[in-house]
Design goal:
heterodimer; A: mainly alpha; MetI-like fold; 13 helices; 73% helix; B: alpha+beta; Rossmann fold; OB fold (Dihydrolipoamide Acetyltransferase, E2P); 2 domains; 6-stranded mixed sheet; 5-stranded antiparallel sheet; 8 helices
């Protein structure tokens, strides 16, 4: 089964590593460096790492994250908002993906294009559009007033609900695409086999389709949850002043307080928080695969 | 439908199925009966409608018209999950996320069988297919033959009244297929379950079936025991599909007590072949004679049917030899002889020979 690998010129095979080095490892290194510096007035607004023959490492930035309740609260609130939004995205995205995956071959590419279509417009513009839809004098309120369902405009914009709505809307394609990929790969004979063995359609879905689409669910949830946790634009534009999200706190530290070290420490903390579970998940999967392999050797 | 004592276990009555967007029906007005405990095969090339018919029995397709009765009960509109039928899929369709034991126990769990009882039943089933030691493995960790046996065990788990098998041995290599054939047949005899198998492999159908139906273009051409269908094909298609057959175009010149005399196009003399029902003179027919029924003979020998030909080529297979003969009019004839004696002289390519066969060994095909 293994195909001979096409020989790439050495430089070409290095491109991905070079890319990662330039745009991931190097910036991460810089952020790590700033996170242990002290803030100073000047340009750049932080102390160097090594000066006059000694290391200047300042752990106070990290200590502050735990001491000041604001950061923990913002972090927890971000995780909560991201978790709820991800769950709602899954609830909406799964049936969508299911319908697309089971649609006729000829319709599938059109439906997929419709899912991706919003990407053709700037993300920022789409969030602004939601502002004009949700505001007290916006489309939605005018429509509901016209229908007579309500007699005074609802306060939707600048609430946590609006943040959820914005995240669900913006990240839905990231949920749908991996789910479509998993669901359309599934062998439909398996559902016939389930029916043959006595499973009604919904039972076949629960016992066969759902477990087989778990990798897609996981991929979709990660693709939504991780960026949603650090989301800045949506809470800034759609959320109210009380909407404390970690991305916004970071922005404030950087640009309003000009406290780069604390902002960097916050960034590193968030990264660890998000990457940690992913690594744990990965190792869990590896362990499962290893257990499977062990069962295979008599 | 009165569920009379004589009524067959499985009755397919005038079943027709046409897929959307196709002209010819996939199954065209098929009626057949299968008795309890039979091993029945639907034999045909791809596109003959045999798989569609099997899917109708399983409940995956609904016929446009006609009825299916199982044990006297009309199941035509019953969904698959309510039928007393289980199927072994061609691709096996094992659940990749479940262990072998969970695959086999899927239907039992679905029926709410208590765990202890279920575990016992799974154990018994896996022992039956010699897979007791591999209960914890996932399907992708099994060989093709092992997967096939898991699929069989899973299909048998719920004690189905009727087991459907879709090309059950198709994915196995030849050697494994032969040994599995006998296991399958022994299993069927022991369990007494009615089997309906779909296959395109005539050897498989002949070896396993108590009776078989040859299908083509959605129709059943002939139903009978393997030897009946092989020895007395009623159509050209069946004669050619089931084993090798020589077909000679002819016209009837007379008929008496089951033997027709015929004039064969392009040959002198008269020919004799078996024809159970009377034929009137002048009817256009074909004579079908199997290669192994033809003997090599001397020029002076007396025989019911006799032809002169030239050896085109010889295939020596070991136990048998197959000759392709040139006949008059650039037609060819296939002859097979058993090499029952060591070192017997063999006709060589180009040699001229006389061939003969008995009237009882040739059949008239009138269609």
């Amino acid at each position: 089964m293994s195909q001979p690998r096409a020989k790439l010129p050495p430089l070409a095979s290095l491109t991905p590593y070079l890319w990662l080095l330039l745009f991931f490892a190097a910036p991460l290194g810089i952020v790590l460096k700033i996170s242990v510096a002290s803030p100073v007035m000047g340009q750049p607004p932080y102390t160097p790492l090594y000066e006059a023959g000694q290391w200047l490492i300042n752990w106070d930035n990290y200590r502050l994250l735990f001491d000041d309740g604001l950061y923990i609260a913002a972090l927890l609130n971000s995780l909560k908002i991201a978790a709820i939004s991800t769950f709602v995205t899954l609830l909406i995205g799964y049936p969508m993906a299911y319908a697309i995956a089971r649609a006729k071959e000829s319709h599938r590419s059109i439906l997929m294009m419709l899912v991706i279509l919003p990407f053709w417009t700037s993300f920022l513009i789409r969030v602004y559009a939601w502002m004009s839809i949700l505001s007290t004098t916006g489309l939605l309120n005018n429509f509901l007033l016209w229908l007579g369902v309500i007699d005074q405009p609802l306060e939707i914009l600048y609430t946590t609900f609006a943040i959820h709505l914005g995240i669900v809307y913006s990240y839905l394609p990231f949920m749908v695409l991996p789910l479509v990929a998993t669901l359309s790969r599934m062998d439909l004979t398996l559902l016939e086999a389930a029916a043959d063995l006595g499973a009604k359609p919904w039972q076949g879905f629960l016992r066969v389709t759902l477990p087989l689409s778990l990798p897609g669910i996981l991929a979709g949830c990660l693709l939504v949850f991780i960026p949603a946790t650090g989301e800045f634009v949506i809470p800034d534009l759609l959320g109210g002043p009380e909407a404390l999200m970690i991305g916004k706190v970071m922005w404030t530290e950087f640009f309003s307080n000009r406290d780069w070290p604390v902002a960097s420490a916050l960034t590193v903390a968030l990264l660890i928080l998000l990457v940690g579970p992913m690594i744990a998940l990965q190792s869990l999967r590896k362990r499962e695969a290893a257990a499977d392999a062990k069962a295979a050797t008599p | 439908m009165s569920p009379a004592a004589a009524s067959p276990f499985l009755r397919i009555e005038n079943v027709t199925k046409r897929y959307e967007g196709t002209d010819a029906p996939a199954v065209a007005n098929v009626s057949l009966d299968v008795g309890r405990g039979e091993f029945f095969s639907l034999l045909g090339a791809s596109g003959s409608g045999k798989s569609t018919l099997l899917r109708i029995l399983a409940g995956f397709e609904t016929p446009d018209s006609g009825h299916v009765f199982i044990d006297g009960r009309d199941v035509t509109d019953l969904p698959p999950y309510e039928r007393p039928v289980n199927m072994m899929f061609q691709s096996y369709a094992l659940f990749p996320h479940m262990s072998v034991a969970d695959n086999v126990g899927f239907g039992l769990k679905q029926d709410g069988m208590p765990k202890a009882q279920r575990t016992k039943r799974i154990e018994d089933l896996l022992d039956m297919v010699h897979l007791g030691s591999k209960a914890k493995r996932k399907p992708h960790q099994l060989s093709g033959g092992e997967r096939q046996r898991v699929a069989l065990a899973r299909a048998l788990a719920k004690h189905p009244k009727l087991l459907l098998l879709d090309e059950p041995l198709g994915a196995l290599d030849r050697k494994l297929r032969e040994s599995t054939q006998f296991e399958l047949k022994a299993l069927q005899a022991r369990l007494g379950i009615t089997f309906v198998m779909v296959t395109h492999d005539q050897d498989e159908a002949m070896t396993l079936s108590s009776r078989l139906a040859v299908m083509d273009h959605g129709r059943v051409l002939q139903i009978g025991a393997p030897n009946e269908v092989y020895e007395s094909p009623t159509s050209r298609h069946v004669a050619e599909f089931l084993g090798a057959a020589n077909l000679l175009d002819a016209a009837v010149t007379g008929w008496a007590s089951g033997i027709a005399t015929l004039a064969c196009d392009g040959f002198d003399g008269s020919f004799k072949a078996t024809a159970p029902s009377p034929l009137s003179a002048g009817t256009r027919v074909a004579i079908a004679v199997r290669p192994e029924k033809i003997r090599l003979c001397g020029a002076a020998d007396d025989a019911d049917n006799k032809l002169h030909g030239q050896v085109k080529d010889v295939a020596y297979i070991g136990d048998v030899s197959t000759y392709n003969m040139w006949l008059a009019g650039a037609r060819s004839l296939r002859v097979q002889t058993t090499n029952s004696k060591r070192g017997g002289a063999m006709p060589a390519s180009g040699e001229e020979l006389w061939l003969s066969w008995d009237a009882a060994d040739a059949v008239v095909i009138s269609e």
